[in-house]
Amino acid sequence: MPIKRKARVNRRECVACGCCAAVCPKKAISIEHGVYADVDETKCVGCSRCALECPASAIHMEVMSHEA
Amino acid sequence: MKHKRHWYDYLWIVSVLYLIAGFFNILFAWLGLLCFFIPLLIAAISGSKAYCNRYCGRGQLFARLGGLGMSRRKDVPRFLKSPYFRYGFLIFFFAMFFLMLWNTYLVFAGAKDLSQVVTLLWTFQVPWHWAYHGTLFSQRVAQFAFGFYSVMLTSTVLGLVTMILFKPRSWCVYCPMGTMTQLICKARLVTSSQKEESHTDIMKM
After folding, report:
1. Domain spanning A5-63: CATH 1.10.490.160
2. Do B169 and B66 meet the contact criterion of CB atoms below 8 Å apart?
3. I need a labelling partner for B92 at 20 to 30 A (CA). Which of A64, A66, B29, B154 fits?
4. Cα B1 to chain center, whole Å?
5. What is the C-alpha radius of gyration for chain B, rounded to an integer number of angstroms?
6. Which residues of B touch A54 (CB under 8 A)?
7. Are B188 and B48 in contact (CB under 8 A)?
8. How do beta strands B117-120 and B124-127 pair?
9. Cα–Cα distance measured from residue B21 to residue A7, given in angstroms and rounded to the nearest whole number
10. Which of A15, A19, A35 sits opposite B63 (nearest CB)?
11. How far is A14 from chain B (nearest CA, A)?
């Protein structure tokens, strides 16, 4: 079974700039209340583009231990 | 899969044109006030960072240049994203902004002559007299334009340097406007959740 990865946002470090949402190919990220980015895990395919783009490096890819 | 491009994905062109226009006629600098008021109004009225997220031409410009391979794409240093630095830079930026307004006032009051220079990084005075062709209005209109263009050019230079050294949109981490709009949004979120709480309290009663 392939390893499942999902983007996780560190809300403390998120500056809500929206770079992640702009590069997300699945439109899985939204900026909530102008304060932090929120990842819709049902849409996230774990491509990690958002994590690479995030200027605050506030997104990391989390390996899901079991099928999500 | 590529996103469908919207009109606002091209606002980076406006940012470039703005800087070029100020090179020819400094009075164009006044248009930069839009980059101050629009994000604040959006944050205050709708409680979102739609400006940063969609319309910020400067952010787009950095993202584009980074996309051309001009960025090292390294993590920004930890201190740069700490609240101390972000809020500290916001305060510093505004202190410098008010100093600039004060200088404008001094020219208006006749205590100072119009200085046709652009001050880079709050320190280096770059001659800019070729962009001044007189003004229909008073000299303080021109003085403010020189001062405001200095602010815009300085932040662009800082943004370009951190774009090259770190992630393309590193500027967004310490952008004073971004910090301020996020603060406004946070305040709105807190007050609205408090309202909701008191509302449910009333419901319970």
Report:
1. no
2. yes
3. B29
4. 32
5. 20
6. 167
7. no
8. antiparallel
9. 41
10. A19
11. 9
B150 in Cβ contact with B100 (< 8 Å): yes
Report ipTM for this prediction: 0.88
Cβ-Cβ contacts under 8 Å between A and B: the total is 84
Tens of pLDDT, residue by residue over A37-49, are: 999 999 999 999 9
Closest CA to B146 of B188, B106, B180: B106
Going by DSSP bridges, is the β-strand pair A29-32/A36-39 parallel, antiparallel, or unpaired? antiparallel
The 3-class secondary structure across B120-180, one letter per residue, is ECCCEEEECHHHCCCCCCCHHHHHHHHHHHHHHHHHHHHHHHHHHHCCCCCHHHHCHHHHH
Q: For residues A65 and B140, which has the higher predicted lDDT (pLDDT)?
A: B140
Coil, strand or helix: which one is A21? helix
